[in-house]
Design brief:
- By secondary structure, the protein is mostly helical.
- The chain has a domain of about 30 residues.
- It contains 3 helices and 2 strands.
- The protein has a two-stranded antiparallel ribbon.
């Protein structure tokens, strides 16, 4: 069985309790409390290039797209 998401596998294993228990033990992702994957972009979900300043929580690519709408000006 292959799947892109662990939730898809949980649905497939719903009728096999022994295999489901083993799958949950080893394959379900744990809740993150620290690290790079804790903070994601609000718009696209990227974890790299993340900006937390001013409570934005946007990646740099989405910030470039939305900067004018947010009221930022480009200074040269």
């Amino acid at each position: 069985m292959t799947a892109g998401s662990h939730l898809k596998m949980l649905n497939q294993l719903a009728n096999k309790p022994a295999k489901l228990k083993k799958y949950e033990k080893f394959n379900v992702p744990k809740k993150r409390t620290t690290g790079i994957n804790l903070r994601k972009c609000r718009l696209c979900g990227r974890v790299t290039g993340h900006m937390r300043s001013y409570g934005l929580h946007l990646c740099r690519q989405c910030f470039r797209d939305k900067a004018k709408d947010l009221g930022f000006k480009k200074y040269r």
